[in-house]
Amino acid sequence: MTDAPARGRELSLYREYFELVGGGTKSIEVRVKYPHLEDLAAGDTTRFRIKSTDESCDVRVSRVTEHKSFEALLEGEGPAGVNPGASRDQQPANICCICGPEKEALGAPAVEIRLPTAQGTWPSALADVAPSGRE
User: Fold this and answer.
1) Helix, strand, or coil here: 12?
2) How many angstroms separate the CA atoms of 11 and 9, rounded?
3) Quick one: what percent of the chain has pLDDT higher than 70?
4) Alpha-carbon torsion 42, 23, 134, 121, what sign?
5) 3-state secondary structure of 8
């Protein structure tokens, strides 16, 4: 049995969340389970980019956990990794401003991410990745 190769993809982030990811304080990315993310898995590399800029940050996916709702995601993952700059009470409203109920109904995967270590190197799974144009 062979291990599947790491896949790379590019996703957009708002600047506020991009800075938390790049600073290493945001470890859980909230996503909607769109079809293009159904195969997202531990070991994948993701390049986050601020829309309409060249600013990017590569992370490794450590874990993907499916949740039925954003509320269930916050309960299961805890608010500190999702947005360490916002209180638990603020976070549902923050998420709903980005993703409405119709998107939440598709599923709410929690994507645990980590930045590369200074000593570590990763295979370049993103070398040929073109921007997806989707959030």
Assistant:
1) strand
2) 7
3) 82
4) negative
5) strand
3-state per-residue secondary structure call for 108-126? CCEEEEECCCCCCCCCCCC
- The angle formed by the CA atoms of residues 2, 4 and 8, to the nearest 5 degrees, is 160
Residues across the chain: 135
Q: In what order do the strands lie in the sheet with 28-30?
A: 8-13, 45-50, 56-65, 110-114, 28-30
Phi/psi at 71 (nearest 5 deg)? -65, -45
Q: Do 80 and 90 touch, CB atoms closer than 8 A?
A: no
Query: What pLDDT digit, counting tens, does each position of 53-101 carry?
Result: 999 999 999 999 999 999 999 999 999 999 999 999 999 999 988 998 8
CB neighbour burial string for 59-97, b if at least 16 within 10 angstroms, e if fewer? bbbeebeebeebeebbeebebebbbeebeeeebeebbee
DSSP-derived pairing of the beta strands 8-13 and 56-65: unpaired
Q: Is residue 2 over pLDDT 60? A: no
> Which residue matches tokens 């409405």?
100
